[in-house]
Design a protein that fits this description.
- Helix content is about 5%, strand content about 35%.
- The protein has one domain.
- The protein contains 2 helices and 17 strands.
- It is globular and about 90 Å long.
- It has helices at about 65-75, 180-185; strands at about 20-30, 35-45, 90, 105-110, 115-120, 125, 130, 135-140, 160-165, 170-175, 200, 205-210, 215-220, 225-230, 235-245, 250-255, 275-280.
- The protein is mainly beta.
Length: about 290
């Protein structure tokens, strides 16, 4: 379950933040195998986390779904990070597909700032006995989606956070992206749904990141303010690639994902007009050499 981005020691060997080792007891699966599972982890207690470690936000669903969802939440285990799944419903927050996933961060070594794209997508897990082996159990992903295809909690669902690695504090945190269906109704600052993206940061102080709303954005790394955006023909996934050729800087993104809120319904979406899209800085004006006669 993604939850923290570890940063421990700088090049001089100085401890960045007060780090402690803690023994974490995962819990007793008395209804399953009767064993206590545990491990030892490193923690920096003073560093704020990206997301709540238990489900605290109220669900946002249609009235027809609210009673069922509230009943599921109230009867489930909601004990925070490292709560193991069992034969009873167990809530994971920010979820097994939430938090900061692989490739979801970029760092500016000059300012000592880490930029993390993360999402809130709670999961409801429950172990089921295997039909082929009596001593084996399994669980699905348990994503808590509503019938609208959106997470069953209040937004924002995707955020970008700027961590000050020198102070161990958050500089700023803002929603990243929108949901096109909601934006058309005037509902903004929700963050995109189901992102699979990562940012890149440039020496010039720009953060580039794509989102499921078909948009590529350039943000001010000091404030998170959107300075520029471009809309493409399909939703974006992955990390932008930045490179230089013949003295000109390029940025390439992959636009080949569904922008629909029902991204979790595989095999039921129309074909995607996927493409790699390249952007470039304007060419520098050529100097004309004057020849004295």
């Amino acid at each position: 379950m993604p939850h923290r981005t570890p940063v421990f020691i700088d090049r001089s060997g100085r401890r960045w933040q007060r780090i402690r080792r803690a023994a974490i007891v995962l819990g007793v699966l008395t209804t399953v195998i009767g064993l206590t599972l545990g491990l030892s982890l490193l923690f920096a207690p003073s560093i704020p986390t990206l997301h709540p470690q238990s489900l605290t936000r109220k669900p946002v669903v249609r009235l027809s779904e609210r009673a069922r969802l509230l009943d599921d939440i109230q009867t489930a285990r909601n004990e925070g990070m490292f709560t193991p799944p069992g034969l009873r419903n167990t809530i994971q927050m920010p979820g097994n597909n939430g938090g900061a996933n692989l490739g979801g961060a970029a760092v500016d070594p000059v300012s000592g700032t880490l930029f993390v794209v993360s999402k809130d997508l709670p999961a409801m897990l429950k172990l089921e006995r295997s039909k082929t082996a009596a001593d084996q159990y399994r669980s699905g992903f348990g994503f808590m989606f509503t019938s609208s295809g959106l997470p069953a909690i209040r937004p924002s669902w995707t955020s970008i956070t700027a961590y000050d690695l020198n102070e161990g504090t958050i500089k700023w945190k803002l929603p990243l992206g929108e949901v096109p269906e909601l934006a058309a109704k005037g509902i903004h600052d929700t963050g995109a749904q189901f992102p699979k993206v990562g940012p890149v940061v440039t020496a010039g102080g720009l953060i580039f990141a794509g989102t499921r709303d078909r948009k590529l954005r350039a943000l001010d790394s000091a404030t998170g303010k959107v300075l520029w955006e471009a809309e493409l023909n399909a939703a974006l996934e992955g990390m932008p690639a930045v490179y230089e050729m013949d003295g000109r800087e390029y940025l390439v993104v992959c636009a080949a994902a569904q922008a629909s809120t029902h991204t979790h319904l595989s095999g039921q979406q129309p074909p995607i007009p996927g493409a790699y899209v390249a952007f470039a800085l304007p060419e520098a004006p050529r100097r004309v050499r004057r020849v004295n006669r």
